[in-house]
Design a protein that fits this description.
With 1003 residues, the chain is of the alpha+beta class. The chain is 33% helix and 17% strand. An eight-stranded mixed sheet has the order 11-12-14-21-18-17-16-19, covered by helices on one side. The two termini are 52 Å apart.
Length: 1003
C-alpha cells in the first residue's frame, strides 16, 4: 500500500512501534534538502517518533523537525496539524506547536525513508521556555494552569472530526485493560507486575460501570508535563504552550484530564491531593458530568498502569531509546502515587473539589459548574434495635475531646504520648462507666511537634475505655463475618460493624452464622480498650486514623458508630466558609497570610496548631517572644483579671513596678515612660513628643521603613509594600533619606559608610532652608528590609546632625528590641548611641496589646504644652502585670541568651544553604531576627519575588509558617518566638533545604 494511502493503525495488530532511526546529520539533510531550512540539529527525546531541534549558527532556535513513526501516515499527521491550528485559533493566549507553512499556505512537510519505512517529516513551530518535565515540585498555581489548559483543549476539539482520528492507540484509555493484559509480562519484577495487573482490574471494573455514559471526542491525549511548555515570564513556572499531537485520537473526553493529572504525580513532593487544583480548574472551564467525576481517578490509575507496562515493553523492543528507558523510574512513581489510596477515596475528593460530593449537586441535563457544597455532617449509623453495649446509656458515657480547641490540650498536653489514655482513665476514675472518643474529630494528640507531612489525625471510628464489664450485643440481626480472639465483624446494613478488643477476650458467637438482634457478641471486661467502626462491606481496608487531606474520602466509606452506643451523631464538620465569612465582615484590607490558610486555633511555645491537628513551626511570630500560651503569662493575667482591671488614672502598684522596671533597662537620661497599646501608637506618640518638645514640625525618616498605621506613624512609613504610593503621598513635613541598605542600596559593601554623611547633609540642608527637623525617626536595626544591620556609625552621625539643629532622635525598637538581636537588648546598642525617645511594643506583651515610649523627664514634661495624655488600657493593671511577667520570664529563661545560641546555630545553617543555592543572595540579621534574601542573579540582585512566595507556600506544606518582607517581598523574615530550640531551627533549615531543592533552585 502506498504511504499516502490512509491505513488506520491498530496497536494490537501492529505491535511494537520503535522510534525511527535517524542521526543528527540525516536530520539536517532532511531539513535542508526537503524542507528548505539549513540548520544544525540536536536530537530530542521521544517514545515513538524522532524529534530534532533545529538551530541557526548563532544558536537561535528555528523550528522542530518531527519525523513521525512510520506506522502513522499523512492522513493522521494532517489531523494532528489541523487540530493544532484549531486550538491556536480558539485560544490565542496559548502558544501551540503548529506546522510551519510555505508562502502559499501549504504545510512544510514531506515523506522520507527511514529504516522502518517511509515516514512523514515536517517542521513545527518551536516554543521556547522548555517543558514542565523533570522532578521540580509543581505549585498549586502551576497545577491549576495545567488543568485549565487541558480543559481549553478539550473544548476546542469537541466538534473536531477527521479520518486521521480513527486509530487504535495503546494510550487510548478505552483499551487500557487490554494493553496491560498484553504488555504486563514485560515488567521484570513479579511484585510490580502483580500490582499493575491488580490495580488495572479494580480500576477497569469501576470505569466499565460508567463507560456507556462517558462522552467521546477528539483528544490530544498527551497533555502532560512533557508537552506543556512554560511561559517565558512565569515565576514560578506556569504553562502556556502545547506541543506533540502524536497521540491525537478519539477517546473519552475525560481521559484528557486523567492523563494530565497522572503526569503530575512523579514530581517532588506531589501526592494525590496536590493535583486537585487541576480538577477544579478543569471543571471551571469544561464542567465534568457526574459519570466523568466517578471515573477520573480510576482513569488516572489506568494511565499509570499503561505507562508502566508500555514503558517496559518499549524499553525491551527499542533498547537504544534512552528516552523510554529513562522514564521507567518516574513512571513507576506515578503508579505508586496513583494507587497510594483506594480510588474510592480519591473519587470523593474529586467530587468535593468540584462541589459535587452529593448526588443532589448534579442537575438533570448538561453538566454545569456548581458551587462548592458546604461542609456536611458525617454519615451516622442507622438507629439500632439494640444498643451495642448492653445496659449502657448515653448518660453513662463520657466523651473525650481531643481536638485542638479542647481545654485538656492546654500547656502542651497534646505532646505527651499517653495523653489519651491518661485522660480516659481520669474520666473513669471520676465515675464514668464508659469513655468514648469522637468520630471524625481530628485529634491533636496524634500530631508530632515537627513534621514535614501532615499526620493521620482524623479517626474513622470510636475508641472506648470501659470502667466496668459490659456485654457487646448485636445492634440488629446480621451475619457474623469474623469472630476471633480480639475481634468481631458483623454485617450492619450496607456496612460492616467491627469491634476490636484485647486478644484475651474471645467472642461468644461464631463466624458464618446470623446473629439475632440483641444476641451476645462478646463479654468485655472492665479496663478493656475497644475500637468500634462501621466500614464498607467488601470495600478497601480503612485505617483507624487518616490524614486530614484525605479524610473526606475515607469518611465517605464509613459511618459514625456513635448512635449504636446511644450517642448523638457527630456534628457538622468545620465550616468551610469561614474564610468567606471573614471577608464579608472583616475589612479585607486587613489581610491574612496565605491564599488558602490553615485555620489556627492554638499555639504552644514555637508551634501553631490547626483544627486539623497539624503542628506548624512558627518562624514569623515576634509578637510572642516567650512562646505561645506561656503558662506564667496566662496565670498572671487570670489572677489580675480576678482582682482588678481599669484605666491608669487609678492608683495601683503594678503600673509603678512595671514602668520602674522598664526604665531601668534604658540608659540615662531615658527615665520616663508612657504606656500605650501598640507599636503604631508608640511611634505616633514618640513623634508628638519630639515635635512638641522642640517646636520644630518637620521630621526626617528613612526610606523602605514601616512604623505603623496611625496618622503620624503612617506619614513616616515609606515601605512600598505597605503602601505602593508611600513616597508620593508623604505630607510636606516628612522628608526622607536613602535606605542605608549595605546589600542592595545605592551604596553597597564598604561604600555603605556614605549613607551616614549623606543623611546628615539632608538634615543640615533642611535647617539651612529654615525648616530644621524636630525629629529623625528610624528603626535601629533595619527590620522591614529583612534584618539588615545599619552601617557602623550611621545613627551616631545622623543623631548628631539632628541634635545640632535642635531636633531629637526617635528610635523605633518595636520589632528588634527586647533581646531579639541576641547580643544586644536594644537595637540602638549595636550602634553605640542613646536616642532621645525610644518606641517599643510587640514583644512587651507576648501577644497582649502593649506598647511604650521611654524618654527623658524633660521631654515628657513638654507634652503638657499640647494638653494631657491618656490611654484607657495603656498601663492598665492587666497590661502592667503582663509587661512585668514578660520581663521576668525573659530574664529567668535566659531568652536573650537563647537568641545568641540558637540564633547563631540557625544563621550558620542558613549560610551553609547559601553556599549551595544561588538563589540565596544574602543572610541578614543577628540573634533571632534574621532575613534570607532571595535573588534571581547575585550580580544584578534582581529580586526573586515570586520565587519567595512559592517557597513560603511550599514551606507551609512542609509544616513551617514563614512570610516574605521587604519592598520587593523577596526576603524571608525569620523572627520566631525566642524560646525556639535547636531541634526546631534544624527542622526549619532542613525543610528550607528540601523546598529549595524541590523548587529547582539547586545546582
Amino acid at each position: 500500500m502506498p504511504h499516502h494511502a490512509h491505513r488506520a493503525v491498530d496497536f494490537f495488530a501492529h505491535g511494537a512501534l520503535p522510534a525511527p532511526r535517524m542521526t543528527t546529520a540525516q536530520a539536517e539533510f532532511v531539513a535542508a534538502r526537503h524542507l528548505g531550512l539549513t540548520a544544525r540539529a540536536t536530537a530530542l527525546g521521544s517514545q515513538q517518533d524522532a524529534n530534532f531541534l533545529l538551530l541557526a549558527d548563532d544558536g537561535t532556535a528555528l523550528a522542530i523537525l518531527k519525523i513521525a513513526n512510520p506506522a502513522f501516515g499523512p492522513v493522521e499527521v494532517e489531523a494532528q496539524d489541523t487540530a493544532a491550528d484549531l486550538i491556536a485559533a480558539a485560544h490565542p493566549e496559548l502558544r501551540v506547536a503548529t506546522v510551519l507553512r510555505h508562502c502559499d499556505g501549504s504545510p512544510r512537510r514531506t515523506t522520507v525513508d527511514t529504516g522502518g519505512g517511509p515516514a512523514v517529516a515536517r517542521l513545527l513551530r518551536h516554543l521556547p521556555g522548555g517543558p514542565l518535565t523533570g522532578s521540580r515540585h509543581l505549585s498549586p498555581g502551576t497545577v491549576a494552569a495545567m488543568g485549565a489548559i487541558t480543559a481549553k483543549v478539550g473544548n476546542a476539539l469537541r466538534d473536531f472530526r477527521h479520518p486521521g482520528l480513527d486509530r487504535v492507540l495503546q494510550w487510548d484509555l478505552r483499551h487500557a485493560s487490554r494493553v496491560v493484559a498484553e504488555l504486563a509480562e514485560y515488567i521484570d519484577e513479579p511484585d510490580r507486575r502483580t500490582a499493575v495487573r491488580t490495580a488495572t482490574a479494580h480500576a477497569w471494573a469501576e470505569v466499565d460501570n460508567h463507560a456507556a455514559a462517558l462522552p467521546s471526542q477528539a483528544v490530544h491525549l498527551d497533555l502532560t508535563d512533557d508537552n506543556l511548555i512554560r511561559s517565558l515570564d512565569g515565576h514560578p513556572p506556569k504553562p502556556d504552550g502545547i506541543i506533540d499531537f502524536g497521540d491525537l485520537t478519539t477517546s473519552w473526553a475525560v481521559s484528557e484530564l486523567a492523563v494530565s493529572l497522572s503526569s503530575m504525580l512523579h514530581h517532588d513532593g506531589v501526592e494525590p491531593h496536590h493535583v486537585l487544583p487541576a480538577v477544579r480548574a478543569f471543571h471551571a472551564v469544561r464542567p465534568l458530568s457526574a459519570q466523568e467525576a466517578e471515573v477520573v481517578w480510576p482513569l488516572v490509575v489506568l494511565r499509570a498502569a499503561v505507562l508502566v507496562a508500555s514503558g517496559h515493553h518499549q524499553a525491551c523492543v527499542d533498547e537504544d531509546n534512552a528516552y523510554a528507558t529513562a522514564a521507567l523510574d518516574h513512571e513507576w512513581l506515578i503508579f505508586e502515587q496513583a494507587t497510594r489510596l483506594p480510588h474510592q477515596v480519591m473519587t470523593r475528593l474529586v467530587k468535593d473539589a468540584i462541589g459535587a460530593a452529593d448526588a443532589s449537586a448534579w442537575a438533570d441535563g448538561p453538566a454545569r459548574t456548581v458551587a462548592p457544597t458546604p461542609a456536611v455532617a458525617p454519615t451516622p449509623a442507622a438507629a439500632p434495635a439494640h444498643r451495642l453495649l448492653r445496659g449502657v446509656t448515653a448518660t453513662d458515657i463520657t466523651t473525650l475531646d481531643l481536638s485542638t480547641g479542647a481545654d485538656s490540650m492546654d500547656h502542651g498536653a497534646w505532646l505527651a504520648a499517653d495523653t489519651e489514655h491518661r485522660q480516659a482513665r481520669a474520666a473513669l476514675a471520676d465515675g464514668a462507666s464508659v469513655v468514648a472518643t469522637h468520630y471524625a474529630q481530628a485529634r491533636l494528640t496524634r500530631a508530632p511537634a515537627l513534621s514535614a507531612e501532615s499526620p493521620a489525625t482524623v479517626p474513622t471510628g470510636i475508641d472506648l475505655w470501659l470502667g466496668r464489664a459490659v456485654v457487646a450485643q448485636a445492634p440488629a440481626a446480621g451475619e457474623v463475618l469474623a469472630a476471633a480472639p480480639g475481634r468481631v465483624e458483623i454485617a450492619y446494613g450496607a456496612r460492616v460493624l467491627t469491634l476490636s478488643f484485647p486478644d484475651t477476650v474471645k467472642p461468644v458467637v461464631d463466624a458464618g452464622r446470623t446473629a439475632r438482634a440483641g444476641e451476645d457478641l462478646a463479654v468485655l471486661p472492665a479496663g478493656a480498650s475497644v475500637h468500634v467502626a462501621l466500614l464498607p462491606a467488601g470495600g478497601p481496608l480503612v485505617p483507624r486514623l487518616v490524614r486530614p487531606e484525605y479524610a473526606a474520602g475515607w469518611l465517605a466509606l464509613t459511618a459514625d458508630p456513635g448512635p449504636l452506643l446511644g450517642l448523638p451523631a457527630a456534628g457538622r464538620a468545620e465550616p468551610a466558609d469561614l474564610l468567606a465569612r471573614r471577608g464579608a465582615v472583616f475589612a479585607t484590607v486587613q489581610e491574612h497570610y496565605y491564599a488558602d490558610p490553615p485555620r489556627i486555633e492554638r499555639g504552644w511555645r514555637h508551634h501553631l496548631l490547626s483544627v486539623e491537628g497539624r503542628s506548624y513551626l512558627d518562624i514569623v511570630n515576634n509578637v510572642t517572644p516567650l512562646g505561645h500560651a506561656h503558662p506564667r503569662v496566662e496565670k498572671a493575667v487570670a489572677r489580675q483579671l480576678r482582682r482588678l482591671n481599669t484605666n491608669s488614672r487609678f492608683h495601683y502598684a503594678s503600673v509603678v513596678e512595671f514602668t520602674e522596671r522598664l526604665a531601668s533597662l534604658l540608659p540615662e537620661p531615658l527615665d520616663t515612660v508612657f504606656l500605650v497599646n501598640s507599636g503604631s501608637e508608640a511611634v505616633d506618640l514618640g513623634l508628638r513628643l519630639a515635635v512638641g518638645a522642640t517646636g520644630q514640625h518637620d521630621v526626617v525618616a528613612v526610606r523602605e521603613a514601616y512604623h505603623g498605621w496611625t496618622h503620624a506613624s503612617d506619614a513616616v512609613s515609606t515601605s512600598l509594600q505597605d503602601n505602593p504610593n508611600a513616597l508620593a503621598t508623604r505630607p510636606s513635613w516628612v522628608h526622607t533619606v536613602d535606605s542605608p541598605n549595605a546589600y542592595r542600596g545605592r551604596h553597597r559593601g564598604v561604600r555603605a559608610a556614605c549613607y551616614g554623611p549623606e543623611a546628615a547633609a539632608v538634615v543640615d540642608e533642611l535647617a539651612a532652608s529654615g525648616r530644621p527637623a524636630g525629629a529623625f525617626v528610624s528603626e535601629t536595626f533595619y527590620g522591614n528590609a529583612g534584618g539588615v544591620a545599619l552601617p557602623d556609625g550611621y545613627l551616631a552621625e545622623v543623631y548628631a546632625a539632628v541634635r545640632r539643629h535642635g531636633g531629637l532622635a526617635v528610635a523605633d525598637e518595636v520589632q528588634v528590641g527586647y533581646g531579639r538581636l541576641g547580643q544586644w537588648f536594644w537595637g540602638f546598642e549595636q550602634q553605640q548611641v542613646v536616642p532621645d525617645v525610644v518606641c517599643v511594643a510587640k514583644a512587651m506583651g507576648n501577644g497582649h496589646p502593649l506598647g511604650a515610649v521611654i524618654t527623658s523627664k524633660a521631654v515628657a514634661d513638654r507634652y503638657r504644652d499640647q494638653g494631657y495624655f491618656f490611654s484607657s488600657t495603656g498601663g492598665s493593671p492587666v497590661s502592667s502585670v503582663v509587661g512585668l511577667t514578660v520581663l521576668d520570664t525573659l530574664r529567668d529563661e535566659d531568652l536573650q541568651g537563647n537568641a545568641v545560641r540558637v540564633g547563631g546555630r540557625l544563621k550558620s545553617r542558613l549560610l551553609a544553604l547559601a553556599a549551595d543555592y544561588g538563589v540565596i543572595g544574602a543572610v541578614h540579621g543577628s540573634g533571632l531576627y534574621l532575613g534570607l534574601e532571595l535573588v534571581r542573579d547575585r550580580g544584578t540582585l534582581e529580586p526573586a519575588t515570586e520565587e519567595t512566595a512559592e517557597l513560603c507556600d511550599r514551606l507551609l506544606d512542609l509544616g513551617v509558617v514563614v512570610q516574605p518582607t521587604g519592598d520587593h517581598l523577596n526576603i524571608l523574615k525569620i523572627k520566631p518566638p525566642l524560646c525556639i530550640d535547636a531541634a526546631a531551627v534544624d527542622f526549619f533549615a532542613d525543610m528550607l533545604d528540601r523546598a529549595l531543592e524541590e523548587l529547582g533552585h539547586g545546582g
